[in-house]
Each structure stands twice: as C-alpha cells, then as structure tokens.
Amino acid sequence: MSDAPESFDCRNCGHHVAGEPADHHGWCKACRTVVVKRSAAWAVLPAVVVVAAYIWLLTYFGLLDSIFIIVWIALGVALGWVAFKVARRVFFEVIRNRGVKPPTTN
Questions:
Q1: Each residue of 66-88: pLDDT tens digit?
Q2: What are the pLDDT digits (tens) for 42-59?
Q3: Distances from the Cα of 1 to the Cαs of 5, 6, 26, 43, in angstroms?
Q4: How many of the other CB atoms lie within 10 Å of CB of 87?
Q5: DSSP state of 64
Q6: Residue 57 is part of which domain span?
Q7: 88 domain-assigned
Q8: Total domain count for the chain?
Q9: Residue 2, domain member (yes or no)
Q10: Domain assignment of residue 104, yes or no
Q11: Cβ(8)–Cβ(26) under 8 Å?
C-alpha cells in the first residue's frame, strides 16, 4: 500500500480531486457530504413516526403506568435510533442514485 495521495476525477461533479481517496462510487468528499446531510435530514421523519406509533402503543395498552416505564422508554429510544439509522441509509442510497447536484465551490 502506497502513501502517495490519491488523485481522481469525481464522477458526480467532475472536479479533479487530489489528496483524498474516492469512495467506492468514485465521488469526492464534498459530494458525499451533501448526500449524507440530506439523507440525515429526511431520516428524522420515519424515526419520529416510529416513536409516535410506539408512544401510541404504550398509551393504548396502559404501559405508561407500569413500574417498568424506564424499560419501555429505553426500548422506545432504541427503536427510534434504529429507525433513524435504517432510514438514513435507505435515503442515502435513494438520493445518491437519483443524482445529486454538485456542491458549489467558493
């Protein structure tokens, strides 16, 4: 493995990038950052829906009055986190495959 900095042309924006490795799709760090930010923003919606459904389930079955409420809360937080992580990955792939406008360079 060499220590020489990599140089490549980004497959999304077309800029020549030196000193950083390309990801497995040949995108530069700036283009990938745009996709990650956008997918994280969209992933909040499914996570909130899962947590809201879980809270409704707890209230419907009367589990909010249980002595195990801390366990139910921890389980709800874990479900929300998993929903966020899965949705973020799905949205990342969807946004990337639909094409992303290249980031503006200053």
A1: 999 999 999 999 999 999 999 99
A2: 999 999 999 999 999 999
A3: 11, 12, 19, 37
A4: 20
A5: G
A6: 7-98
A7: yes
A8: 1
A9: no
A10: no
A11: yes
- The alpha carbon of residue 74 and the mean position of all alpha carbons in its chain are separated, in whole angstroms, by 22
Joined tokens for residue 88: 């973020």
- The answer to whether the CB of 61 falls within 8 A of the CB of 70 is no
Show Cβ contacts of residue 74 under 8 Å, excluding neighbours closer than 6 positions.
none
User: How many CB atoms sit inside 10 A of residue 83's CB?
Assistant: 21
- 89, part of any domain: yes
The label of the residue with tokens 């990801």 reads 23
Name the residue among 105, 99, 84 with its Cα closest to residue 11. Answer: 99
Cα atoms in the 13 Å half-sphere on the side-chain side of 30: 16
Both tokens of 104, joined, read 């503006």
